[in-house]
Amino acid sequence: MRSQFQCRKSDQVQTAKRVDAQPTVKHYDKNQLTAQVGPDAIRVAMPHMSMEDVHNFGVAHIQQGHYEAALSWFDSYLSHSPGDPECLCNKGTALTRMGKPMEALIYLETALISGAHIVGVWFNRGLCLHCLNRNSEAKDSFQKAIALEPRLAETPA
Length: 157
Prior knowledge:
Elements: E1 5-10, E2 13-18, H1 38-45, H2 51-64, H3 67-80, H4 85-97, H5 101-115, H6 119-131, H7 135-148
Antiparallel strand pairs: 1-2
Helix pairs in contact: 2-3, 2-4, 3-4, 4-5, 4-6, 5-6, 6-7
């Protein structure tokens, strides 16, 4: 399996950059998402949004590279649904991309409690562990992701 994740050290801090892997997504239409950022925008928008929309705004911000904003949206979602494995996984993904894999691992491990059937949880856990140089554990996570979704083992053309 070709790595879709790169880790690099800069200024004594190990940072992570996703190359082409994506956060787990429930459902969203990119054309409906706007670039609202931060807790104030969330407080204004939330009364008019479903919780799924709140989660999806966080996903959109990850995809745009706005990780702090994504964390705000995920925190708002988790205040209503604290054990949601997809949201916990996505928060872990954002933290990994921000170069905080130790903090990210807490959320990814928590996501496994009720989300062991979700491919993205295992895959993102593997990426996080890889950034922590815990490669044997990362390999185990990737193998579990492949067991759930065999296409992951295919090499892209």
